[in-house]
């Protein structure tokens, strides 16, 4: 609901802030499930998040800003 209202108000800062918070929150919940629930150390978890961020940054550097392509 917040995303629709902020898009309607044409304030992209809050949309980007909320998107980043949701992505990092999802990563934190997944890591908590793996480490806290199962007791496993997860290095691959950080690697997948890092590779995804690196790929998006490279595509953005080359002028590709479409979210579906990234």
Give a nutshell description of this structure.
The protein is mainly alpha-helical.
Feature tags:
single chain; 70 residues; mainly alpha
How far apart the termini lie comes to 24 Å
* Number of E strands: 0
- Structurally, how many domains make up the residues? 1
- Using only C-alpha atoms, the radius of gyration works out to 15 Å
How confident is the prediction overall: mean pLDDT?
79
Largest sheet: none
Number of helices: 3
Helix content: over 70%
How would you portray this structure in words?
This protein has one domain (2-61). It has helices spanning 2-8, 12-38, 44-61. It is built from 3 helices and no strands. Helix 1 runs antiparallel to helix 2. It is flat and about 45 Å long. By secondary structure, it is mainly α. The longest helix is centred in the middle third of the chain and has 27 residues, at 12-38. The model has no long low-confidence stretch (mean pLDDT 79). The chain is 74% helix and 0% strand.
């Amino acid at each position: 609901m917040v995303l629709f209202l902020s898009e309607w108000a044409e304030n992209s800062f809050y949309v980007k802030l909320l998107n980043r918070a949701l992505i990092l929150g999802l990563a934190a919940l997944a890591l908590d499930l793996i480490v806290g629930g199962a007791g496993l150390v997860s290095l691959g978890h950080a690697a997948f998040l890092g590779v995804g961020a690196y790929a998006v940054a490279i595509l953005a550097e080359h002028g590709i800003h479409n979210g579906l392509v990234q």
